[in-house]
Amino acid sequence: MDYSLSGKRIIVGVTGGIAAYKAPLLVRLLVKAGAEVTCAVTDHALQFVTELTLETVSGHRVYKELFDRSNPHSTEHISLKDWGDAMIVAPATANIIGKMASGIADDALSTLLLAFRKPLFVAPAMNTEMLENYAVRRNIDYLRANGVEIIESASGELACGTTGNGRMEEPERIVEIVCQHLTASQEGAGKQVLITAGPTYEKIDAVRFIGNYSSGKMGFALAEELASRGWRVHLVAGPTHLKALHPGIERIDVESAREMYDAATKLFPSCQAAILSAAVADFRPDHQADHKIKKQSDQDDMTLHLVQNPDILAMLGQMKRDGQLLVGFALETDNELDNAHKKLTKKNLDFIVLNSLQDKGAGFGHDTNKVTIIDRNGGVDAGTLKSKKAVASDIADKMEALVRSTENN
Ligand code: CTP
To answer: What does pTM read for this prediction?
Structure first.
């Protein structure tokens, strides 16, 4: 694929693993794509690749010492962090990953990383056992949870003579991922979108509730995707442990369907679009006890009387003005397409995302999903099993295309 990084300034951090021999190629490819590149290295990296090579391919002096009297600035890590639009650490050893996760700054590169606040990519490379070590896994997960883009290592022959996971992703692929990320569409700039996500809990008494298995992963992936495209996201989230990372996401935590209804109906009028992915409980107990309900000694059964919750999606369908876009989800087990289509018409949606419950790896709790997108003109787009992030990107593409077409009419 042809990408352009024209006008972008990228810092390539190189650490001491055998894959450092690929760093000059990575720099070369970034420069070829139009980027200006500076390298920051650890002492160990220079055991594998020379400073002269990196300086020659990048055309810039290599940053390697925190207290180098010949540095143009005494605080080069600060001026360099302002200079760079993005940073790629490739290869990233277990050591640098551990330092990043712990906030340790004991050399030039780790100090720069601690100060760097812009898109940051990390391409781990190490022996399989090291990669699978609990501390390394924890550190990688921690970096990811804090917004670092992890470029997962691939499987293949390793320097230690074994075969397994731990090989640094190929420089061509790293450049592709960085390009996709840095040149993502900013179509949403200035526009607002409402997203509902996760389950709702319907209180029975002081310690019990009726809930469901929704993890919220699909809705959070949508929020991250749209925020990265410049949308201001209002994420109304039911109870979930997930974190919203992008600064463009405003998160409103709710518990019950009625709280979600209040938040969503208040926010919708100022939004250009809404995507309701939450698994909202259709019913709630008609009475919620403030104390813990005690069982009686002679009690064999118990009856809970449930009343219907408001349908948030249907309400937004009624509130929808010209130019606003409404997207719903459907979870069906029988007559899937037919039922989803009926829901689309009944709730006045622009398109509906039909979740498959038939496929392994799709639906509640998984990191992958398989959906079919049905629009109001009868268009049916059946997807394959993909990561929830990739599904979110498909939904965002469809939504932005519809927003464009309503704006052009
Ligand atoms: N939804 C909602 N408020 C509700 C119930 C559902 O906003 N009280 C939304 C969901 O977020 C989803 C869509 O409606 O976008 C479809 O939910 P689903 O449970 O599949 O359908 P229902 O309309 O509740 O119908 P049924 O349970 O009969 O299939």
So the answer is: 0.67
